[in-house]
Write a structure and sequence with these properties.
Belongs to the ABC transporter superfamily. It holds the Pfam family ABC_tran. Keywords: ATP-binding, Nucleotide-binding, Transport. The protein is α/β, with parallel strands linked by helices and about 375 residues long. It has a domain of about 100 residues. It is about 30% helix and about 25% strand. The chain is built from 13 helices and 15 strands. Helix 4 packs parallel to helix 6. The protein is globular and about 70 Å long. It binds adenosine-5'-diphosphate (ADP), iron/sulfur cluster and magnesium ion. The site of magnesium ion (MG) has 4 residues, from helix 1. Iron/sulfur cluster (SF4) binds next to loops.
């Protein structure tokens, strides 16, 4: 049996929207994360995907208590973090580290690499005396594939890939158990992305790390993840083992995301279903009622999809969880897709469809069905 390191239960992060001269009148809330349950097992990788603005970074930050959750619970290795007093939380922090998308903006340009790596050790009072810290830092540089001369250099003297290695070294030097990597390769050239992903995989094996890897692109998390969770507008819509989610995506939103990933095999590529979603992501300040995806879903059915929010439920006998009322009927083909007109929402999302340009189009091998 594998042990669970992180357990998230009904996590919510609602940011108040302030208006007025002194910005003290709350006129609404951005529901960035709105009721997420997930578990991450020790030594495993959970890949979290979804389009920009769906709440992935907020979820990652709330998990580490860098953003205070509005509701719900986060249990880390048996300790409830949401109610932990600040002093204990600080001690807990060194066991959980974060890697950011853009190392250039997360690394202080005035600090050399040695100082960047020493800072965290000093802040947490770990790594022993000066000599021991130097040894630890030298070992960490080796582990992330940076030369020792890097110590006296500054972030701008490195390439994007090397800078991300510095960002990884800064996290790993503290000997954490959990790393939240928020879009760790999104800012890198495609040729460098695989190297950084492979490095994360090697470090995990060597150090027994547990990862939450966030990406907006399914292809990035495919190889590194044991479990993949797909997020839409503040909630998880599907969760399964990495193999299952790629072989058998069940939620219409996951199918749309998958349909955007090209397949190397030309024959499979020809047969690939392509779903272009209508409109933009609706505003998390005013999310659609019922199933949050119903305004863009080609399989949406009256009136249940609009009225009832589907919860994540296990489909079949394994661990595959899907938040769709009609997952089984969609899979068997009993419910067929239809055209969707993007709705023009109050904040302008979906307004591009005013000319009918963003209607959902679904193509199957036999040609467009809508
Ligand atoms: N500090 C904040 N205050 C108000 N709204 C925020 C804040 N941080 C994020 N948001 C909003 O929350 C939603 C989710 O953002 P984010 O978690 O960054 O999404 P993602 O990482 O998936 O792109 C967005 O609508 C964003 O504008
Ligand atoms: S519940 Fe309805 S709207 Fe939501 S994904 Fe399923 S079919 Fe589409
Ligand atoms: Mg983000």
């Amino acid at each position: 049996m594998t042990e669970v390191l992180v357990e998230v239960d009904d996590l919510k992060v609602h940011f108040p929207i302030k208006r007025g001269v002194f910005l003290d009148r709350t006129v609404g809330h951005v529901k960035a994360v709105d009721g997420v349950d997930l578990r991450i097992e020790k030594g495993r990788t959970y890949g979290l995907v979804g389009e920009s603005g769906c709440g992935k970074s907020t979820l990652g930050r709330a998990l580490l208590q860098l953003t205070k959750p509005t509701g719900g619970r986060v249990n880390f290795d048996g300790t409830e973090l949401t109610t932990l007093p600040p002093k204990q939380l600080r001690q807990m922090r060194k066991r959980m580290q974060m890697i950011f998308q853009d190392p250039m903006s997360s690394l202080d340009p005035r600090q050399n690499v040695e100082s960047i790596l020493t800072e965290g050790l000093q802040a947490h009072g770990i790594g022993g005396d000066r000599t021991e810290r130097r040894k630890l830092i030298a070992k960490t540089l080796d582990a992330v594939g940076l030369p020792q001369w890097a110590l006296s250099r500054y972030p701008h003297e490195f390439s994007g890939g090397q800078r991300q290695r510095i960002g990884i070294a800064r996290a790993v030097v503290l000997n954490p158990e959990l790393i939240v990597a928020d879009e760790p390769v999104s800012a890198l050239d495609v040729s460098i992305q695989a190297q950084v992903i492979n490095l994360l995989g090697d470090l995990q094996e060597e150090l027994g790390l547990t990862y939450l890897v966030i990406a907006h692109d399914l292809a990035v998390v495919k190889h590194i993840s044991d479990t993949v969770g797909v997020m839409y507008l503040g909630g998880l819509v599907e969760e399964a083992s990495s193999d299952d989610i790629y072989r058998r995506p069940l939620h219409p939103y996951t199918r749309a995301l998958m349909s955007a990933v090209p397949v190397p095999d030309p024959e499979v590529e020809d047969r690939r279903e392509r779903i272009l979603l209508a409109g933009d992501l609706p505003s998390p300040a005013n999310p659609p009622t019922g199933c949050r995806f119903h305004t863009r879903c080609p399989w949406a059915q009256p009136t249940k999809c609009r009225d009832d929010r589907p919860s994540l439920r296990i489909i079949g006998t394994g661990t595959h969880r899907v938040a769709c009322h009609w997952a089984e009927q969609i899979e068997t083909g009993e419910i067929r897709p239809h055209a969707v007109k993007a709705e023009i929402t109050a904040d302008g999302a979906g307004a591009k469809d005013a000319h009918g340009a963003l209607e959902t189009a679904l193509e199957t091998p036999g040609g467009p069905v809508v």
